[in-house]
Amino acid sequence: MGGFLLRKVGAALIVLFLASVLVFVGARALPGDPALALGAEDRDPAVMEAIRHKYHLDEPMPLQYVRWLGLALQGDLGTDQRELSVAHTIVTRIPITLELSAFAVLIGMVIGIGSGVLAAVRRGKPADYASTTFALVGLSIPHFWLGIMMIIVFAVNLQWLPAGGYVSFQDDPVENIRHLLMPAIVLGTGLSAVLMRQMRSSMLTSLDADYVRTARAKGLSEWSVIGKHALRNSLITVTTVIGLQLGALISGAVITEQIFGIAGFGRLTIDAINQRDYTLLQGVVLVTAVGYVFVNLAVDLIYSYLNPRIRISGRAA
Amino acid sequence: MRSIGARTALLGGAALLACAVAAGAAAQTRGPFSPSVRSGGTLTIALDADPDVLDPSLARTFVGRMVFAHMCEKLYDLNAKLQIVPQLAAALPRFSADKQSVTIRLRRGIKFNDGTAFNAAAVKASLERHKTLRGSTRASELAPVTSIRTSGQYAVVLRLDTRYSPITAQLADRAGMILSPKQVAALGDRFGTNPVCVGPFSFKERVAGDHITLTKSQQYYARNKVRLASIVFKILTDPSARTQNLRAGNAQVLEGLQATDIPVVKRDRSLRIIKSTSIGYQGITINIGNKNGLGKQYQNVGTTFARAAGLRRAFSLALDRNQINKLVFGGTVVPDCFPWAPGTPWYAAAKGIPCYKTAQVKAAQRLVNASGAQKPIEVRMMIGTDPVAARFGAVVQAQVERVGFKVTLAPTEFVTALGRQDSGNYETFAVGWSGRVDADGNVYQFYHSKGSQNVSGYVDSLVDLTLGNARKAASLKARLTNYKAFIKRAQRDMPIIYLYHAVNRNAATNKVGGVQVFGDGLVRTYFAYYK
Amino acid sequence: MSYVDTAAATELSPRARRRRLLRKRFLRRPLAVLGLLVALAFVTMAIFAPALAPYDPTELDVTAILEGPTREHLLGTDELGRDILSRIVYGARASILAGVLATLLAMAIAVPIGVTAGYFRGWLDPIVARVTDVVLAFPFLILAVGLAAILGPSLLNATIALGVGAAPGLIRVARGEALSLREEDYVRAAIANGAGDTSIIGRHVLPNMTNTLIVQATVTIPAAIIGEAVLSFLGLGVQPPTPSWGVMLSAAQPYVNDAPRLALVPGLAIFFCSLSFNLLGDGLRDVLDPRTTR
Hints:
B: 16 helices; C: 294 residues; 72% helix; globular
């Protein structure tokens, strides 16, 4: 297990290093530079030169990179164009996106696993068709359109839910849920569809398996058979699927935050690109990459723990 | 709480006020003299963008000026009639005989929000910082100022290297903001993280992209006029989200109401719309001579459109400004043909010069035929990437097609477009200007051959002469005469086609009074109150 | 009595026999057939747009703004008086083009890289794995926004961004397939017989991967269609005046209160187009799965 862990962590570090170089170079490949974005209306040459000097843009790129990386490793992600600490901005806005994502994953899991198990157990019956259709719809619907439609129906016409914005849980738990409900449903739809199909398929396979037939023959109740094996399957399935869908979740959060006017982490990235705020952009993308790599590492480890074959052979099936 | 008799109410109110001061700003009580004015409370203003750094020497955004208006007073300010009035100064500036020395007398006995005394030394230090701080965006605004000296404790004298009428207007914006010397000494160029000036409110805290909080200042010289306990500027870049927040009561004031929400706000009796015509303009800038980039040698770029002024005039005549107003903006802007807004003193310079708000198709066709150019004449136009820009592009395309122009749209992201504009890598660009109080600020830098933003690459000796004279002339009449001659020439060559002036629309709940918006478009709530 | 070679007349090659079996299986699945028909309908719409659309999609009619469905305009008009039906028909072009081309691009990148990594292993494999991970560590949208800002917004650049975004997932699939096919008996036999790597890949590995690749393609296309809509919605893809369903959605937002139809119609188009490919893909996966009996 030790060798496996070491290999995985080593690979993760390489990925992070390459990602940091990519975002550094990519930011500087954007046409225009911070001086232009900040020089705004007046674009005084003296001002622009001062801005370039301040962000070290007049130095050779490798030097800029080393300087940035050195500070980043110490936890100092620099200050953005407003002289505000990037790390502080990220730390205040990440929880919002995390909360939204967690809520979405929860909804996705409840609906996805629930309907998947139901479809497998009631195979061939109306419940199965209903669930399968629902999953198909969830996969095919553009979720940003779903968001707009939900706003029209629930916020504009019925006035049941607010059209956007965010209220923190500490301030008002009820409002917090009311504001996040639609965005979380929108974000969780795709995940629930994928989960449902996976669950159904793996449940069907295992329900057919020999050891299940033996258990039934031994007289164990149907529900304990389903329960025990559904549980085992769901852990493996959910872990795999979430690991694979993580990127989609983050991308989805960006659009969802845009439509529902939530000042979360996703919006921050788009704003940073538009404002050519290199420091902010690098900090945000680096943190995203770290988060993604870390979660994937965790998923890999959990998966290998649940599936001993991986541990021994050392590679994913 | 109901009043039970004038005298009792008076005494009772005074006692209550004392309690309120003791209890803290959050308590809501009734003021003793105005039954419908409450003291206290937090006002939330929904802003459409996040201000940049809150340092007057470095700041560049419009929304930043709004925050400053509440916490950082200036030597001069504007009133409702767009006249310049003293704020931290005691009176309007006095010019010497040669017009190159400016004496400014200052208010006495006032303090910065950290308790330090406001005096001539502080003003001198701030103005010098604006001029010399590396990266200062105020440096070009104060360029003609060669030296600043104090004259006693409450007067400063500015020396100019040339006659420069716009100086007062510059001091009525960020260049006139005075910073606490103690805070500048403490924070240096990180002043923007915790700014301290003279103001009705002082800076409390800020979360990037989310909100800025100000609290009532106990040092302010007119603090009895300030009712609110605190103001929160909430950043909501999505216009629909701002409207939602206002209607739901999460914000009491909204800056930047989008055109399509106007009917909804109008129908809501608890809300009111406050509007003012922008002093800037929106139009189409044409590349005539910017072949090698800003500041380099200008030579005609060689396109059909750039070579023939007649074609540019035809383009302008073919546009139907009223229809653009109706289709693209829902009738919410002010169509016009000049760089200054109607209602400003400068607009008189355009008197007598025709401005066609509907399409003059026949006249346009005549000009196109006279030019001998082969139809369709291809013109490439950079526009923004938002839906309004898309509508604008589609309408312009359809309108000029009738007289033989084929417009290709190039939606370009804003910063990229600015880069292209400066380097001369464009044909036309649908762009505007936010506007300056002094007429000079809307034209000089674009038209003068040495103008800092002459992205059209336009050179004309009469224009250089008239703009230079207007800058030096002291009387309004003399300046207007020069500007009139300038406009006539500009309209003949048309490096910029003016289409409309935006109307700043803001909204507020009727539960709050005292919200003011002047011609500069800044929403001022420092003396606002809950009813 | 003439000699009729009945055996020869009824004998079909194994390939043709299999194809007939697959076709029969497919036809037994009504949903898959429906998906195929609707997908073909959208493709036809895209190809023959000029013939099918009643109006020019960019033609303004300032006298008929935001009108409901009438006989002249079956789906009504938008905020500039343009016929919505025509814009939907032309909009199919952007979606189908982006969907199909992005998928082809992703395949063109992923298959060579994935097969090489999976078949040859060695030092190439870990490198491919790391590079794939790096690309995946960037949320797809950030990558697309960055690419669009660097290259400039256009349908072509959006297609490239979508293709690049879809490639890593496909690399993993191709690699996995090559890896397991390499262990198959007939491949080992071919290697033992001294056959060259290229010929093995060409004759044994790639042909046996086609089923999986087809299924992956039918799953990637709908994702790319939605992806194009997202990018156009953000202003990063198709640029006006070219109609695109995503652009129509973004333009509809300010009119959500007055004319929700403007947002409803393009969204439904994206939904049904994507759904049809998903149904088709599901059906194909089912049909090509050796474990299916029907």
